[in-house]
Amino acid sequence: MAEPSLPSDPFLRRTALIASAIAFAAVAIGVLAFTVLRPGAEPHFDARIGLVEP
After folding, report:
1. For residue 37, what are the CA distances in angstroms to 5, 6, 22?
2. Tens of pLDDT along 1-54?
3. Cα(46)–Cα(30) distance, rounded to whole angstroms?
4. Which of 25, 32, 43, 50 is deepest in the core (most CB within 10 A)?
């Protein structure tokens, strides 16, 4: 089974890592925006059981 690999060129390797970090952060921000920061709802976060609607 072939493993995905980063480019051998250091510049491309760094660029690929930065791009993947930015993509990960964008997904995390999107998830937060649609779960915790939804406009109109007033959810709060309970550390014991997670997101709770009032």
Report:
1. 36, 35, 20
2. 556 666 788 888 899 899 999 999 999 988 887 777 666 655 565 556 655 555
3. 20
4. 43
Residue 25, SS3 per DSSP: helix
- Beta-bridged to residue 46, according to DSSP, are 50
DSSP H stretches of helix in the chain: 10-35
Q: Residue 35's pLDDT is what?
A: 74
CA atoms within 13 A on the CB side of 36: 11
Q: Measuring CA to CA, which residue among 33, 6, 31, 29 is closest to residue 19?
A: 6
Tokens 């925006």 sit on residue = 33
What tokens were used for 8?
A: 């051998």
